[in-house]
Structure formats: structure tokens, C-alpha cells
Amino acid sequence: MFRRSKAADGTATGQVGIRKKSKVPGVMITQFIETLPEGTSHPDFTRKPIALTIQEGKFAFFKAIVTGEPKPTVTWSRNNGDVSDTSRYQTKYDPNSNEHTFEMPNVMPDQADTYKCFATNEYGQAMVTVVLNVIAVGFKKNQPQQPAAEATDGNFKTVLKRKSKIRPKSEQPERKEGEIDPKFWELLLSADKKDYERICAEFGVTDFRWMLKKLNEMKKEREEEQAAFVKNLSNLKPIQVNADGTASFEIDMDLLDPSSSIFLYKDGEMVPYTKELGDKMKHSLKQVGKKYIFSMRDLMPEDAGLYQLDVEDVNMFSTEFKIPMVDFLVKIQEVKAKEREDAVFECVLSNPFSKILWFGKNVPLEQGDKYDIEVSEDKLIHRLVVKDCMVVDKGIYSACAGIKSCNAWLVVEADKDAQKGKKSARKTTRAGGSGMDLQKVAQEQQAKLEKVREERKEQIKAAKEAAAAAPPPETPAAPAPTPAAPSAPKEPKIVDEPAAVAPPAVEVASIEPGITCGLSDIYALRGQPAELNVKMNMDCDGAWFKDGEQLNSGPGVTITKDGTSHKLTITSCRDDDSGLYRFVSGELSTQGKVTIGDVPEFDPDDLHKFSKPVIVRVGQNAAFKMPFAPQESLTISWFKDGTEVKDGGGVKIMKEPNHSRLLLRDCLRTDTGEIKIQLKNPFGAVEATSQLIVLDRPGPPEGPVETVETTSSIIEIKWNPPKDDGGSAVTNYIIERQPTRQNLWTKLGDVSADKTSFRDRNVTHGKKYNYRIYAENPEGLSDALETADSIMAGIMILSGPPGAPKVVSASKTCINLTWTPPEDDKGVPIIGYQLEKRKKDTNQWIALNTLNEPIEGMKYAVKDVTEGAEYEFRVSAINESGAGDPSPPSEMVCAKNPNMRPCFKDPEDFIVVRAGNSVRVKICYEAEPPPQITWLRDDEPISPWINIINTEGMSQLVIPSSKRSDSAIYTIKAKNSMGEASFDIEVRVTDEPKTPGPVELEQTVQGKVVVSWAPSPDQELDDRLCYMVSQHDSNTRVWKTVADRLFTNTYTAINILPGIEYHFRIFAKNDMGLSDPSQSPTWGANSNRVPLSSNGINSTAVCFERPPSILVPLKVHTPPKGYQVFMTCAVRGCPTPSVSWYLNDVCINSDNNYYITNSFGVCSMYILRVRPKDSGEYKVVAVNSFGKAECSTKLIVRD
């Protein structure tokens, strides 16, 4: 058995595992992240699988429906095994119903287990468990606990002696008469119990009790031998042909010693193999975990035989590979089907074959809901029906018979008429087939096979007659005595073969009496005569016995002899005539059993009731029931249109002792046909027939739609009735119309079923129309039959040519055109225009719009052009009849911008920048051809460390780290062949102004005070520096501005009143803002106070000047490649220091890859996308007149 598998339902590295509760009981949900993004959700089940208890050999399945955004992935597993075997486990998904299905066809007891269903997306996982119980039926082999493997001596590997009784043909001893072939037991030891009867029939074993008893003993002995090398052995799969033309068998082994030697044998002879699939050897053995897969390629007829797999000297598995002599007379052909239509693959074999293998995309196919596998009565014609084709069904399908195979494509075309988001209706038609009369081919082949069989019988008969007519050789008069071994006493020989045996060998010395045709078991009808015949090779007398009593001719029994033929005739069989009959002639005897009985019968009332047709609608279930009298050895079969139907998929067959039921689920229109039940026993068979009628919408009317008449006022059309009326007569046809270039369909009316034509009288001359026709019956409307092409009312009237297009303007991306309407529109309104272009040096005119999308105006902007290419254009007028004659072509025009003198677009003429920050002057321009750009500083060339970046239509001047000295008038000049243009931009680099000097107050006139102050240190550096004066008095106690934008160092304050204290503040002001204020002395009430003594303490002026210092240093950064980096530090000093950045001691202030700023001492450097070459040591250096300060860090870029 398998060990318990561990389902991986944990979270990945870096994820959290949050348990969530589901609305459906029994569902376990694990959420991988704490907060879900908007519009997403973890997986959950809206329908979970249901526990199932089912009988062995039936079709088991689980169904589940899951939700989640993004859409979850659904997987299945089991606790004690693997579900990767696609022949036993199949997963399917129906996008229409959103159902996930896990199927197990022909379920076996070892598949009983607890199964898990997982639904997983990137945000979580949902898991549910479900139990499958399998009820075993029939004989069960013993499975004792295997003993623990004991340590074995490694020297035994040197010389191996196989414990299997299968030997090469050269070493096989001569078998005695009645001895069973050892191959029989080897096959039984590895076979499933369902194959016991077949194997026994092949080897002529009829005593099942004895066979089962001996088999159990041999199994115990074999399991004890296997336990020395393997822990467990399971999943034995017999050899079979695969879709790729190879043959393989599989076995699951858990070896005690992984180094144990594994041998392969064919008919007792060792087979060399390789463990590499790509090797050129014919045989290979692949190991996947505990699974061992033996494969054989390039199959030939001589590859048939008994294959065995041994571990050391103990056999583990035996399987027989049979290659029937069969070939394909008609191979399957490619099928092109529409969506939701059935597809049919058909083939004809050279010899009868009960079942061939079908594969779809290398996956074995079985009878079920999706596939119908049909076989003709002569077993020559085989058919695969792929029902309800979807786009996902397309691929390669193959048929395998023995070692022969053929394959073909299934192409599924999407239904273009289906409404978006809705499932289209199921179609009742079938696509594909061989395109040949397969029945005729099969009949011809059947006749050939019958002829071959007759010729073979004649040969055997001739051989028998020649052997019987051969004269016995003369016996010598005085034979010399020869030593002979004593012979055992002869016993009567029992001949059980019902068929004619091979002709006896002709002995040289004499011919001994023998039975050439013995008795066999027969079944005779009650009241009918029966004959028992025995033929011998010479004229001999014999006696007949019944149940041990000798028989003589008498009433009801006649015994006759005609030469070598002996016959017993029962004139009218009765129940007491049943028994064991035996013929004895000397020491020879043969026997056979006679059984008397009747053919099954139906009750006339039940037969009449069953013969009534069953009528259902599409999608409904159809049920048939037939009672009968209970009988022994009764075989019940159901047929549809002559093909036997099996239980499974949409077919349910119930067989009870006194009745049988047939249930067809979800019937389709194609299910209409003859339903037949057959009761069969050894005495004969009886059949009852009924009809299944499935009602559906009719098929579409048969096309094409023909135009009977078209004039300026009438359009008459006709069509043919539908091939399939849906089971009920068509009542009427509905006709709809659509004018061309419109989306609206309008119902025109309907006509009765006996009319298949319609006359439309409401038409406009020259206008085109589309028509579609529906057939209607009591079940609904059919699909529509549409006209292939639009139908015009009357003759075609096309407009005259418009005027030649004229070029309004042209650029490298767009050419604007205009034109005039045609002079003659032929009396039909123009609904638009079609524009065409032609590239120079080409002959092809390319339409810029379709006839269904006409240009409504008489101008158009052509944007589909290539820069530098030359084009010409023409235009046609469109009316209801189509596009008229094209206009003359326009002049050739080149897709390029027109030549123009340079001009600047909305430039700024004044820019203020804080000292230390970068200066960026961006100027946009228009010019053709592209101009030459020159920058000047105060009418002189700019410094080399100032960067100039020129792109198409724009030029940019960049000063990475600006200083006050960078203030100037910058001039940009643009010059091309059409002229020259220039523009001046004043750039002022400044900083917040410094505080003005001491303030003095002086009164020269009563009521006026002259306020004067020392100039700010920045006054000489900044010609835009000015001053602002604020005043405060003791009455209002509010500071108010009394003067602004003063370019002098004095101010006269007026309305100065006595007895009130006044205070003044002086601010320096520039483009960056205000400085700190300078306070004036108090003026007013206390200005005449005697100053207080300072007690000898002298005041000292405070100086704020200092060298630079680092307040906040740089930090270490280790970003990944491609990420952004932001470095910052804080610097102070008076006067303001100049800051420079270095990478590995190289200044990067002027490098465009680094964006550097300095805001009030906070120095920052920004890298948009870091590169490996940006790694290194970064250093910030701050310098002023009192000294310098620096700090450094490292940047490490990770891959």
C-alpha cells in the first residue's frame, strides 16, 4: 500500500497564514496576506464535493465549484496514494457551469481513501476533504502482512538462479499430456480477478475451485519470496500500446535495498534495457519515485510474448503482450467541427476486433458523458463520437489496434454567432466521418475473411481424408524381437473438444482406433429434435450411455450407425432428456452434457406497451422499462440504432431478476432512433423494439437564399425547408431584414410552412439589404439562415468621381486634405466618402477607411504616414450601391514639417534660484530644418562646467550647484537656413538676505523721526536688495509696515507723538524673502531716562561667524539594482558654506545622473535608478572662509 502523502497546504516563505472561516461547513481557508487589495479575494468553495459510496467497477466522480479573485487553481490529492495516473484519475473543468470534476472510471477497491481538493491563488488557499468508499464484489485474494525483510548475504548476486518456472524455449522440458503451462500460473499471479475467467479459457482450465485453491497457495509462497526484497507492491498495470506507438507496463515497488538488481525477461530470456529515454535501445526502464515504467518502442509482431520483471531472483510482475494481426483498411480523417457540434472519427479494420484504444491528445478516452465509442456487429467498423465540441477539445486524436495506429486532427471553430458572455445553443448536427461507404468496405472484407476460413476448412478436411485413406503398411512375416519398455495399462481417453481435432498422425506400423469428432455440451429447445454425433477414424462399434445407464433405440430415442459415424437422435426434447451422455467404443469414450430449455419470452401486453414510442423534449430524460419472467443464465442487452449501449455517462441501465430499465439523461435531438432490448440465454434470444423521439427546435432553413426577383420596388427571395424539423412539423417561417451599414434587424412578417419564398415590397432603389429566415415549430425558433451577400433593390447606381483632394497642410505626422463633392451623384444621395493613399514608387492604393465606415465630411486628417515619405491621395463617393469612380489623384506631398524660421514657445525671461540648488533653464522652440542652438552668458560663451542638453524641440541649460556669481543674462540663439532667433533669460542666484546693521533714531523736526541704519552685507552683491520698515507704538502694540521697497538707508517717520513709546524694525528684502530684523532703540516716553550703571561690566558684541560643521552625517545605503536612492545630511556654518559631492574622490556636482539640492543647510542627492557603477564611497565637503567640514558613507548596489 501507499504511505500517507503530505499535502502541501502551508504558506510560502514570507507569507502569513491566517485562518478564515468559510460559509460552507468543512472548508478550511488559509489567507496568505493580512490585508487583501481592493477587488481581490481568497479562494472559497460555493459547492464542496460530497462523500460517495459506490460499487467496484462503477464510474465515480466528485464535483466542486470555487470562487476567488484572481481565479483559483484547483488540484486534487489523496491521503494514501498518488493521483497522477491519468488512466485512473481525470480532472476536468466546465467553464460554462464553473464546475471542477475529479473522475475515476472503473473504480477499484484500492482507490477507497480520503481525498482532498485544494483551491489556490496568490492570496490564499481553500481545502476540503471527502471520503470515497468502494464496495468490493467477487473473489478477493488474500493479502497477508508481509514479514520484515531480513538481511541477505550479498554474495548471492554473483550467480542468480530464477525461481520462475518460465524458461527459454531451448531449456523448456517436454510437457506431459494434461500438464498445465507454467505461463498460466505466472499470468494469474499478476492479474486482476476480473481477468481470471479469460486466462482460464485461454489455457483450457475449467475447474475454478481447484485453480483458486492452488493460486492462493502459490500467492502466499510468492509473497514470502518478494518480502525479502520489497516492502510493498501495488498498481500492477499490464502491458498495453500507447498513443505514441510504444508499449509499456507499470508497477509500484518500494525496495528494501535501492541497489537491488532489476532484470527483465521475455519468454524466459533476459532482455537488455536502458534507463535513459533518449537512448537508442529498444527497451527502457524508467524509475519515477517508487514507480517503475517499462517501455518498448519500434513495435514488431515478434515482440509478442510473456514479459516478466524480477528483483534479483524473485519475480515481481508478469504480463503477456499479444499482438493481433490487424490493420486499418480505412483510417480516421481530419474533422472540422463548429463549437457545440458533435465530431465523428471512423475507421475500418482488416480483422474483427472487439475493442480498440482511442486517445485524445495522448489521453485514453472512455465511454461517458463526453465520448461515445461505437463498434459494429461484425466488429470491423469502429467509431468515436466527441460530443458537444468546445474549442478546448481541438487536438490530435488517434486510434490504436494492436501495434497499428492512425491519427487525425480535430479542429473546432468558435461560434461567431454566439452572444458575448452567453453559451451558444447545442447543435444537432455531426461533423466528420471518413467520407466513404464504410458498410460496403466492411462487407467486402467480411466476404474475404469468410473465403479464407472456408479454404482453411477444406485444407483440414482434405488432410483428414488423406490420412484416413492411407493403406496400412504391411507387417513383416517374422519380425525380429526388439526390446521394449513395459507399457502402462491403457485407460479410456475422455475427449472434451467440441470442434474437430487435428487429423491423427499416420503411424508407420498400424492405425489405432480413434475418435476424430467427439461430443460437446449442447442446449436443446423443449419439443424440438436434438442430435448427438460421434465420428471415428475407422469402422468400430460403440454404445451410448445417459447418466451411466446404457441407451437403446426406442420411443423418443433413435440410435443409428453409418460407417464411421454414430448418431443419437432425440425426436422431441423433454425435461427428463437432460443429462450427461457418453459414447464408448472399446477403450475410447467421449461425453457431453445435454440441457433442455426454452427461448426467453415477453408477455404480449408488455410487448405492446413497450413498442409505443417515447416522446421527450431536448434536455429531458427518456426511460424505457421491460418486464420479463425470471430465468437462469439470462443476458440482458440494450441497443440504440443497432449499437449496444453501456452503463456510464448519460446512460443508466438497471437489471433486475424480473425487469430491466434504460434511462437516457439529457437527451439530444441526435438521440432520436430505435431502442431495442435483447434477452439471451443458451437456447436463443428474443428482442423487443421501441422508438425514441426527441423534440427540439427545427434546424435552420436550407440555403443558400436565392434572389428570385429584384427591381426598384420589389425584392423576392426563396429558400429550402430545414433538413431536421425537430421532430414536429414546421408551422411557419419568420423573415427579418437589415439595411446595409446598420445594426438593427426589423421583422417583415411570416409565411406558412408550405411557402418557402417571400416578397419584400418596401425597398428603396439602389439600396442593399440583408435578410435572415427562421423556421418555427411548437418547440421554438430555429437558428437563422442569412443571405451570404447583400441584395440590392434594382440595378447598381454608382456616383461620379469627386474633385481631386487638395493638401491643406502637411507635417511629419499628419497630412490634412479637403475635396469637393462629385458633380453628378446620379440622383442617389451620397452617404460618405472612401479615401485611398498611394506611396511614391508603388502601384498599390491602400484604403484608409472601409465602405462600412464612410467619411461623412469633405476633409480628413491622414495620420498613418511615414516621416519623409511622399504620398498621393484619391477619394470615391459612397452611396447605397457602393463606392463610385475614384477622383483624380492629388499632388504628391511629402510627410514632413514645413520649413520655418526658429521661434520660441512661451519662454520665461526671469528665473530666481537659491544658491546651492541646481539651475535648469528649459526653452521650447519650433523650427524646420532643426536649428543650431547656441547659449551665451552676458553675450559671452558659457563656462564648460555648465551643461547644455538639446533634444528635438527643446534645449535645456543646467548649472548643477549654483552660486551667486552665476547670476547673469543668459541668451539662447537658434539658427537654421530659414533665419535666426534669440531670447534673453535673466537668472538670479541669490539667498536669504543678511540682517541690516545697527539702527539710529534722530529727531530733526517736531513730530518726525529720521530712522537710519547700516546697510546689509548683501547690498553690494544683490542689486535687487531693498528694505522694509515696521513700526510699533505703546498704544496699539501691533507691528505694522510703514515703508517697503526702500533702496536707501534712511526713513522719516511722521506723526510721532510725545508720551508714546515707539519701536522700529528694519528688514532686508530680496527675491528670496526677508532677512531677520534689526531692532531700533526705544523712542518716546522713557527716552530721557538716566542710564543705569553697569557696575563696571562692559558689554561685548556677539559674532555669529563660524567654520562649517556636519549636524547630521550621511548613512550607509544598500539598495537593489534599479531602485532609487536618496542621500541627505545637514550642514551649518557662517557665512553659508559651499557644498560639493564626491564619488570615489571625483566631484559629481555637474553629473546629470545625480540630482543635488541644498535647502537651508539640508544637502540632498537623488539617484533615480541606481546602477552597479554607482557603488562606492560618497563624500560631502562644506567649505567657507573659516574652514571646511566633510562626512562620507558607502553605497553598495545589490544584484
Automatic annotation (TrEMBL):
**CDD domains, per this entry?**
FN3, Ig, Ig_Titin_like
* Regions that span the bilayer: none
Question: Which GO BP terms sit in this record?
Answer: sarcomere organization
In terms of SUPFAM superfamilies, this protein maps to: Fibronectin type III, Immunoglobulin
Ig-like domain ranges (all copies): 43-129, 898-990, 1107-1196
- UniProt keyword terms in alphabetical order: Cytoplasm, Immunoglobulin domain, Repeat
* Region feature Disordered, mapped onto this chain: 419-492
Q: What is this protein called?
A: Immunoglobulin like and fibronectin type III domain containing 1, tandem duplicate 4
- Gene from which this protein is expressed: igfn1.4
